[in-house]
Amino acid sequence: MKLTEPGICRVNVAKGELDGATNRYVKTYADLAGLYEDADAFRALVAQAGADALAYEVTDFKPSADAGDMIIGVTRMRPGKVGREYFLTRGHIHAKANRPEMYYGERGRGVMLLESPEGEVRTVEIAPRTVCYVPPYWIHRSVNVGTEDLVMTFAYPADSGQDYAIIEEAGGMRNRVVDDGAGGWKLVRNADYRGRTATRLEQVYASAS
């Protein structure tokens, strides 16, 4: 049996990236169209900053996509708000939904917004030297509630995959993370949220087989 060679990557906290990464992808403001509640504020942001301006980027190390292997990486999110809503990532559930994930705070202040397939909501605050555990079957989205870049190291099983459509199909996540007017954040109801069908829930729970 030929074994995979050990490797090393270094987290560059200042740059918010993984030195030694094998992959990088970037999300621009244009990629986040339709995610925020205030469409007018989003259009104003894009007009000011440009559609191609960086919203967040991911650098990761993928030895393989084999079951039993691990993907590690770093996410860097810009700070800011669209209207009252803090900057966020697209969010996803794993395509094999029984796969977990962990995030380790390196810099900045964030919130991991989690939602069960049935619509239960949880939040985990992330700060430097904080480990956030995302259990199997939870949809998750990162939100930058601070005033500087949010930098997080993450790791998840290499065969997990990502399902982004589960959020879009439901009209977004059940709650939004917004400015509470006192230097913090709070959850508010997403008026566009419509939940998931029984068929979609069956697909999620069957995805690991």
- The CATH top-level class label: Mainly Beta
CATH architecture level-2 label: Sandwich
The CATH superfamily is: Jelly Rolls
Task: List low-pLDDT spans.
Answer: none
Calculate the terminal CA-CA distance, rounded to whole Å. 26 Å
- Global structural class: mainly beta
Structure description:
This protein has three helices and 15 strands. It has one domain (11-206): Jelly Rolls (Sandwich). With 209 residues, the chain is mainly beta. β9 (110-115) and β10 form a beta hairpin. It starts with 9 loop residues before the first strand and ends with a helix. The longest helix is centred in the N-terminal third of the chain and has 11 residues, at 39-49.
Task: Summarize the entry for a quick read.
This protein is mainly β and 209 residues long. The protein has 3 helices and 15 strands.
Core attributes:
12% helix; 15 strands; mainly beta; six-stranded antiparallel β-sheet; three-stranded antiparallel β-sheet; globular; 209 residues; Jelly Rolls
What layout of secondary structure does this protein have?
Layout: E1 10-12, E2 17-19, E3 23-28, H1 39-49, E4 54-61, E5 70-77, E6 81-82, E7 85-86, E8 101-107, E9 110-115, E10 121-126, E11 131-134, E12 139-144, E13 150-157, H2 165-169, E14 175-179, E15 185-189, H3 198-206
